[in-house]
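Deliverable D2.4 — example input (C-alpha cells):
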C-alpha cells in the first residue's frame, strides 16, 4: 500500500468497518439517502477530513511550494464562477495524481507537478479538479451510494481521491458497500463536464488552453507503458480517445495564446526535484542541467539548494548572486538568501533579508513564517509575536502561524499565550482532547491579560462541547 496520507485512510476505513481503533470524529450529517449531499454537509465533511490530513506527515511541509500551488489554484478558482473558498495542499508522492475532497479541498501529488512540462499544463489539471467541485460531482457521487453510512462514504471518497485501490477493495470485499470500483470513479459524463469547465477556467485565467489537452494526451500515450498498472490519476479519472478529441475540438474554438511560465513554476519544480534526490545525486543532476541550459534560472536555483544542503556555502552564495543579478525578485530567492545567512550563523542578516522581503512581498505567508522564526532565533521574539498576531487576524486557520506563535510565547515566558496557541494547533488537527488539555494549562498559568484569558475560556467551552457531542455520537454508534 502506498504511503500517501496513510493515517486518515486507515482511520476512516476502520471507522467504517467498526474496527477497534480510534475513530475520526465525523460530523452527524443525518440522512444521506438524498440524491446528493447538501453544500453544508459537503463543507462540514471536508473540514473534518482535512483536520486529519493536516497532521499527516505525507503532506508536504514546504511553505514556498504550498503558497505557489494555492496562488495558482485560487487564481483559477477566481475565474471559475466559484463562490466557495478553495484550499490546495501538496502530497509527497511520486505518482501522477490530483484529487478533490468535499468542501473545495484539492490535493496535488509532487509527482504530478514534476511531470507537467508547463505552468499551463499544471493549471489545466487544477482547473479540471476545480470543475469537479463547482459542478458538485463529489456530492453527487456520495449521495448516490444510498445504502452506505456517512463514515463508509467518507472512507471510500478519500481512498478514491488518492487512487488507493487496496483501501477501496478492502471495503468492498468486507461487504459494507454494494458499489463496485467502477461506480466509485468519476463517470465519463462527469469527466467531460469537468473538462469543459476546466478549459473555460483556464482560458478566463489567461493560460494556454492547449496545456490541458496536451497534458492529458501525453498521459494517454504513456499508458501503453503501464499495461495493467496505469497511473493513479487515470484509475479515478477515466481517459478516453473521445475525451481527448472533445478537448482538442473545444481548444480549436478558443483564442490562441502563448503564455510563458512564471519564474516560480520553475523554482517549485526545481525545489521538489532537489528534495526528492539524495544530496550528491541532486548536486550532480543540477550541475548537468545548468551546463545544458545555462540561461535557465530555475536550474541554477536547484543547484544552489543542493550546494546549500551539502554545506558548500561559497558555491551556493555565488549561485545566489547570479540569480539575484539575472532573475526577477521572488520570495524563493529571498528565503534562499536567508537560509544561506542562517547556515553561516548570521541571523541578523537573515532577519534583515526577510524584513525587506516582507515589504516587497506583503502577501507572501512563506516570508512571514521565515521572518518570525529568524526573529525568535535573533532574540526578537516580541517582534515575532506582534507580527504573528497581526497575520492571524486574516489567517485564523493557519496552523503554521499558531505553531510559531506558541514557540515565540514559550521563549517570552508567556505560558497562557503559549498553551492557547498550541491548543489551536491541536484543534486544527482535530485532536480535540489534546486541545482541551492545552487550554486547561493556559487557564492554570493565568499570566495572560483579561482578553487572553477570556478567549481561552470561550474556546475551551467550545471544545468541551465538541467532545461531549463526539462521545454521544460514539455511544449511539455502539448501540446501533
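Example output (designed residues):
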Amino acid at each position: 500500500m502506498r504511503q500517501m496520507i496513510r493515517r486518515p485512510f486507515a482511520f476512516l476505513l476502520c471507522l467504517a468497518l467498526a474496527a477497534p481503533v480510534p475513530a475520526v470524529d465525523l460530523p452527524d450529517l443525518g440522512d444521506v439517502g438524498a440524491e446528493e449531499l447538501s453544500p453544508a454537509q459537503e463543507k462540514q465533511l471536508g473540514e473534518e477530513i482535512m483536520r486529519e490530513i493536516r497532521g499527516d506527515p505525507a503532506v508536504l511541509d514546504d511553505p514556498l511550494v504550498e503558497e505557489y500551488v494555492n496562488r495558482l489554484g485560487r487564481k483559477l478558482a477566481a475565474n471559475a464562477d466559484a463562490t466557495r473558498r478553495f484550499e490546495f495542499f501538496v502530497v509527497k508522492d511520486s505518482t501522477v495524481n490530483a484529487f478533490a475532497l468535499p468542501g473545495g479541498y484539492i490535493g496535488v501529488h509532487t509527482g504530478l507537478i514534476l511531470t507537467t512540462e508547463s505552468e499551463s499544463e499544471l493549471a489545466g489539471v487544477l482547473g479540471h479538479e476545480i470543475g469537479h467541485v463547482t459542478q458538485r460531482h463529489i456530492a453527487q457521487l456520495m449521495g448516490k451510494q444510498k445504502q452506505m453510512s456517512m463514515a463508509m462514504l467518507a472512507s471510500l471518497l478519500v481512498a478514491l481521491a488518492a487512487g488507493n485501490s487496496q483501501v477501496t477493495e478492502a471495503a468492498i470485499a468486507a461487504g459494507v458497500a454494494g458499489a463496485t470500483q467502477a461506480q466509485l470513479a468519476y463517470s465519463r459524463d462527469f469527466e467531460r463536464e469537468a473538462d469543459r469547465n476546466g478549459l473555460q477556467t483556464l482560458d478566463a485565467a489567461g493560460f494556454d488552453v492547449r496545456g490541458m489537452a496536451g497534458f492529458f494526451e501525453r498521459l494517454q500515450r504513456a499508458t501503453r507503458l503501464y499495461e495493467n498498472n496505469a497511473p493513479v490519476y487515470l484509475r479515478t479519472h477515466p481517459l478516453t480517445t473521445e475525451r481527448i478529441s472533445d478537448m482538442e475540438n473545444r481548444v480549436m474554438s478558443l483564442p490562441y495564446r502563448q503564455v510563458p511560465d512564471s519564474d516560480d513554476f520553475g523554482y517549485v519544480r526545481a525545489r521538489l526535484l532537489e528534495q526528492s534526490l539524495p544530496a550528491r545525486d541532486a548536486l550532480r543532476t543540477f550541475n548537468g542541467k545548468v551546463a545544458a541550459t545555462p540561461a535557465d534560472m530555475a536550474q541554477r536555483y536547484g543547484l544552489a539548494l543542493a550546494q546549500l544542503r551539502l554545506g558548500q556555502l561559497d558555491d551556493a552564495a555565488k549561485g545566489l548572486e547570479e540569480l539575484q543579478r539575472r532573475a526577477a525578485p521572488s520570495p524563493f530567492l529571498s528565503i534562499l538568501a536567508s537560509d544561506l545567512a542562517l547556515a553561516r550563523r548570521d541571523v541578523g542578516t537573515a532577519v534583515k533579508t526577510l524584513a525587506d522581503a516582507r515589504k516587497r512581498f506583503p502577501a507572501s505567508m512563506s516570508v512571514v513564517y521565515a521572518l518570525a522564526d529568524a526573529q525568535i532565533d535573533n532574540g526578537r521574539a516580541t517582534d515575532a509575536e506582534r507580527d504573528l498576531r497581526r497575520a492571524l487576524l486574516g489567517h485564523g486557520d493557519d496552523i503554521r502561524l499558531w505553531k510559531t506563535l506558541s514557540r515565540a510565547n514559550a521563549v517570552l515566558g508567556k505560558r497562557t499565550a503559549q498553551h492557547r496557541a498550541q491548543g489551536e494547533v491541536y484543534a486544527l488537527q482535530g485532536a480535540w482532547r489534546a486541545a482541551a488539555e492545552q487550554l486547561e494549562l493556559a487557564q492554570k498559568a493565568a499570566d495572560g491579560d483579561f482578553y487572553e484569558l477570556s478567549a481561552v475560556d470561550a474556546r475551551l467551552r467550545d471544545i468541551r462541547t465538541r467532545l461531549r457531542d463526539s462521545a454521544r455520537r460514539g455511544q449511539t454508534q455502539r448501540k446501533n
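Confidence is low (pLDDT under 50) at residues 1-34, 160-184.
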